[in-house]
Amino acid sequence: AGQGGVERISIDRASGLARGLPQVLSPHWDARPAGQAPELIVVHGISLPPGRYGGPWIDRMFCGNLPPEADPYFAAVAGLRVSAHALVRRDGRLVQYVPFHRRAWHAGASSWRGRSACNDFSIGIELEGLEGATFEPAQYEALVRLCSDIARQYPITSVAGHEHIAPGRKRDPGKGFKWPALRQRLGWPARCFPSVSEASSDP
Prior knowledge:
The chain is an alpha/beta fold.
C-alpha cells in the first residue's frame, strides 16, 4: 500500500462507504435530491484550532460534539452542524464521515458554473491545513487516489475549491494548494478544473 493506505480504497456503491478507510460517521447529512448523483468534488482546507494539526477536533466538530471549552477558538464553531465526506490528514491518512452518495453539509451558500446549492451535487473533501499555506506530498497522493476512485463510481465532471464555489465568502484551500499538480496527477481535461476566470477573489 502507498502512504496512508490509499492503495486499498474501494468504494461500495450501495453503502457509499470506502472499504479499508477509517470511518467516523457524522450525523450531519441528509439525502440528495431524487435522482441526483455526485458530479462535483469540492476541496476544502481545515485545521482546528487554525494552524494546529492532529488531535481529535475535526472528528468531533463533524460529529457535533466539539467541546467549546477546549480552546478559545472553539466557542465560535462548536455549535455548527457541518460535515464533509472525507478528510485527508497531513500524513495522507484518510477518514470518511458521510457516505459519498449522501449529502454532506460542507459547501454552504454556493454556486458552480450556474448551479447553486452545491451540497446537492458535490462531494466535499477536507485537507488538513491552514488556508493559504502549503499541503504535504502525502496529501496530494491520497487526494489523487480518492478523486480517481470517486470518479470510477460517480459521474464526476469537475473539481473545485471552496473558494471557487463561494468566492468572497470562502478562501480555502487557498494559494498554497497546487491545482496544476492535481490536474497533472489526475490526468483529467482542463475543463474539469477551475479556469482563470473562475479563480477565487483572494487579494
